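Fold this sequence, please.
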Amino acid sequence: MYKVNIARVRIAIGLCCLLCVSAVFARDTEPVLLPGNRKPEYPKMSLRLGEAGRVTVQVKILKDGTAGAVEVASSSGFPRLDSVAVNAVRQWKFKPATKNGVPVDKLMELQIGFRNPISDSYNSDLSIVPKEPQKLAEERRVLGRDKGERERYRGNPPLNLEVTHSEPSADGSVIFNIKTNTDTASLKINGLEEGGSVDGNYVVKKVARVGQATQFTITAVDINGNSDAKTITLFRKMHSNPDKATDELDSDTSDSKRLNLQVTHSKPDADGAVFISVYANADVASLTINGVEEGGRSSGSYRIRKVARVGQDTQFTIVAIDINGNSDTKTITVSRQSVVATQAVTAALKPETIKRAPGRDAVAIIIGIQNYKRVPRADFASNDAKEFYEYAVRALGVKPEKIKMLLDDEADEINVVKAFENWLPIQVNRDKTDVYVFFSGHGLPAPDGKSLYFLPHGVDKELLSRTAVAQNEVIAALSAAKPRSVTMFIDACYSGQTRAGDVLMANAKPVTLKSDAAIYPPNFTVITASANDQISSSSPELKHGIFSFFLMKGMEGEADANQDGKITVGEMQDYLSDKVSRQAMTLNRKQSPQLVGDTSRVLVGK
């Protein structure tokens, strides 16, 4: 008989139990987001623009509890919010997943919600809901199936937009025949509402610009909320004998924004030359002066040379028609005196003397604000911007359709931000496009003197951080577009005074451009009108800001010191330093333009 060792049996049984318990507790676990992780901060620019949405981020949780690869699985619709979410998740800590009790790498999806971005308190609540990928995929499949069943049940087919059109007639009229397959709640052409239609049929008349391409974007929304859009591009040729009968256009666009034509002109020079500056508040299809066609321009801005008769009055009748068929007419009378003796003539800008540079890969944002809503005016700032348009085209080689110009009340905070954040990136080819920025108006330093602001039309100096446009935001937007180069011309001062010397902000702490030179990337060239403690002056005699006037005069060739047909940044700076300071002395002031950038870079005449 075998003797049983009771102690050994008990030990064996205990080991078996321990193994069983370990097997039970070593089950697989999913990763868990640990408490205390810092939530993403709502971007300031997203708050201003009302951007909101939910980002789904896929992250690989490493076995040490840190985030590995992070990418956007489902966008919020706003790249700025997506980027903030991804950057935040990269810093988060997790309890890793386990398999058989051992930590392992595993994918996980997180939903980060950005909601209520604009309210009285700027609430930016963030909701974070971690979800396991398989469960999330199943939810999406079910939601998609249910949505499909509901749409089939309701008879809600997708909206389909069909557009045909006639060719532009002699007066530029284009007839659009538009048909949708559902009950249409709204139809817009280039943002103008044409109304709803039960049968979805429309016949709409528009006008194409003379001598260039005109784009018409048609957007329809049906009563179920479905939408569709089509873009049509038309080209209207320039006719040598244009039809002057503008009354032929039907006045069927009464709901469109009324066309408003503003016309100014220079005094006749010794040869009788008169420069007529025309600005329209809409996309101009045709502009004629005394029946002679000058072509269409999306910017609505023109500067045209005419000649007045000697010794008598000369009338010029300007007629404009926008792409919606609206028209406006202005008549000006110019008197040219018979010159008996030669008199000194004040220097004048002559962009027509510049040999027009061939169009190249370049874009320009031109901003001029003379009449502010809540702060004193900036004399002649609008003139500066309107005039610089011609120099951007002729001297810098920017194509007219690649210029965004904002004048006075058009240059509010939102439009300025959209120009840099929305319009510019679409126009820029990465590392190929040259970008030019011209700003004429007011600037101010922050109350602490550590940052700069461009002042838009509706700025409130008591709420500077909310109603002004920070210079560092503009620089960030320009850099994010990835252009080949950026050149900024800034006719504004940061001394807290206006161009006329009035106080804009008491006790302003000025900031020098040189102290902020490090904030500009290497491909930036920045020329400003004055030093930190100086006024950026305007001249009643020149009808311009002094800096803007001589900047443009220099582009005509006066800044070409060595007469080699090219104007470098250094040559322009030397020319401005001399001319601007001399002109400022006539006003008993000091004004010294400042430069950041490569002085050897060719500015004009590449």
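The longest strand covers residues 213-222. The chain has four domains: 32-154, 161-235, 256-335, 360-604.
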